[in-house]
Amino acid sequence: MTRPLQITVLGATGSIGLSTLDVIARHPERYGVYALTGFSRIAELRSLCVRHRPDYAVVGDETQAAILQQQLQSDGVPTRVLTGEGGLCEVAAHPEVDVVMAAIVGAAGLKPTLAAVKAGKRVLLANKEALVMSGALFMQALRDSSAVLLPIDSEHNAIFQCLPSGYAQGLGAVGVRRILLTASGGPFRDIAPQLLPEVTPEQACAHPNWSMGRKISVDSASMMNKGLELIEACWLFDARPQQVEVVIHPQSVIHSMVDYVDGSVLAQLGNPDMRTPIAHALAWPERIDSGVSALDLLQIGRLDFQAPDDLRFPCLRLARQAAESGGTAPAMLNAANEVAVDAFLNRRIRFTEIASIIDDVLNREAVVATACLEDVLAADRQARNGANTWLSRHGR
Ligand code: NAD
Ligand code: MG
């Protein structure tokens, strides 16, 4: 009997983190929890430590760490508490770790995810922003290490499942014509465009099909999520932006498709529950139970498709432009979006101003090549400054 695989869950207190722990707990003979990390909701992290008894927990600062360490001691849990980015990178790269779930939201996940790649782990990538920011460097680090990267984003996990194993030779070599990236269209798919400036964070976070963290929920509502996913798909599958087509599919049952030159289209279907791609990536190339119920197509009845509306969703167009520009453009797009989404969630700007901010930043800042990680981090800082300047210029 082999020992259970040791797993670090970066972002354990989030939506993906909790779904990951749900799947892991169904298979104690296969998986053990090495480390859990959280940035807020520390009470939740404490109960996760009591339940899963990891070797390490990582929190944001020393004060949180001291409190949590004392609480865990009184709970009789031997978990050691570490702090900050150093702690995150340590538990992502530790020799005892086999698998790292990268489920921190946003640019904060970049360094720990890269640390896991460089240390040769099996990396389960939910944190799409990390790859969008640093695409070329990230993929180079992957080629230079023995790491295995498996996509958790449901669309990319679906595409991965629909591609033959030799796809790394190039999509053309395996007969792929296009990737069809499906999108639910989010909560504002059918709203009258003139009402969009008035929508609230609560409305934006009420996704019709998926229950997710607040940042990705707003991204889904603006369709920036699909834009980030387009860039993610280009890196993961070595596709050109023009080879990735976005199709609105309101039921979120088909998670994406691959169109081959002979006219075959392969799709992966399932209930919209992230435990399916998580279980797939954890066990690949095997299959394990995820706790997700069987798909009932008769209950669903119909599958609809429509083209995305560029006027309603300018973020998708901005992301496609950034994908085509390359270099630091995707990192700037991502950073400006993070600042703008945060401002929207804090009611400082209107929903439609998210796109205005990103557009403004991308128009002002020059795109350069990314030779090293510092180039990416500098572009990230520059775009955050640009977005904050927009906010002060507009008195927000
Ligand atoms: P979430 O907001 O629910 O959780 C985010 C996690 O990251 C939390 O554990 C939080 O404590 C941690 N975190 C936040 N800021 C941090 C910081 N500065 N430093 C360290 N840790 C920090 O988000 P989520 O919905 O679970 O999404 C996580 C990632 O997965 C995102 O990149 C998202 O795009 C991606 N993703 C999510 C879903 C989904 O269904 N939720 C689907 C596909 C992809
Ligand atoms: Mg997705």
TrEMBL record:
Residue numbers binding 1-deoxy-D-xylulose 5-phosphate: K128, S154, E155, S184, H207, S220, N225, K226, E229
Pathway named in the protein's UniProt entry: Isoprenoid biosynthesis; isopentenyl diphosphate biosynthesis via DXP pathway; isopentenyl diphosphate from 1-deoxy-D-xylulose 5-phosphate: step 1/6
Protein task: Catalyzes the NADPH-dependent rearrangement and reduction of 1-deoxy-D-xylulose-5-phosphate (DXP) to 2-C-methyl-D-erythritol 4-phosphate (MEP).
EC numbers on record: 1.1.1.267
Binding site for NADPH: T13, G14, S15, I16, N127, E129, G213
Domain 1-deoxy-D-xylulose 5-phosphate reductoisomerase N-terminal: 7-135
Location of the DXP reductoisomerase C-terminal domain: 269-385
Substrates-to-products reaction catalysed: 2-C-methyl-D-erythritol 4-phosphate + NADP(+) = 1-deoxy-D-xylulose 5-phosphate + NADPH + H(+)
Name of this chain's protein: 1-deoxy-D-xylulose 5-phosphate reductoisomerase
Gene3D superfamilies membership: 1.10.1740.10, NAD(P)-binding Rossmann-like Domain
A family per Pfam: DXP_reductoisom
InterPro entries according to UniProt: DXP_reductoisomerase, DXP_reductoisomerase_C, DXP_reductoisomerase_N, DXPR_C, DXPR_C_sf, NAD(P)-bd_dom_sf
Organism: Stutzerimonas decontaminans
PANTHER family: 1-DEOXY-D-XYLULOSE 5-PHOSPHATE REDUCTOISOMERASE (PTHR30525), 1-DEOXY-D-XYLULOSE 5-PHOSPHATE REDUCTOISOMERASE, CHLOROPLASTIC (PTHR30525:SF0)
